[in-house]
Each structure stands twice: as structure tokens, then as C-alpha cells.
From TrEMBL:
Alphabetized SUPFAM superfamilies for the sequence: XRCC4, C-terminal oligomerization domain
Originating species: Arachis hypogaea
Domain of life from the UniProt record: Eukaryota
Protein name, entry field: Uncharacterized protein
Amino acid sequence: MHLQVEVIRKNELYENMKVEADKCLAHVERVANEKAEFEAQIYTKVSGGLKFQEIKIERAS
């Protein structure tokens, strides 16, 4: 009987860890997507700023 209780307890712990691992994976994926989105926005802003500076320099010449 003691062994059966231990097996049940370990199965419950395993299931809980699996749920937490899935939550962590979802969080990591969300953060990675947010990072990629942020980098794309920054790239767009920086390249737009550089293009603006290039136009200013061309006009000044």
C-alpha cells in the first residue's frame, strides 16, 4: 500500500511539473515573439531616421 501511495504522489508531482514546464514554454515563446516584434519596430525607426538624415545631407550638399 505504501508503494502505491508513493507512485500516485510521484505521478501527481510529474503532472504538476509538466504543467509548469508547458507554462514556462508558452512564456518563453511569448517573450521571443515580443522581442522579435520590438526589434522589427526599432529597426524600422532607426532605418527611417537614417533615411531622414541621408535626405537632409543630400539637401545640404
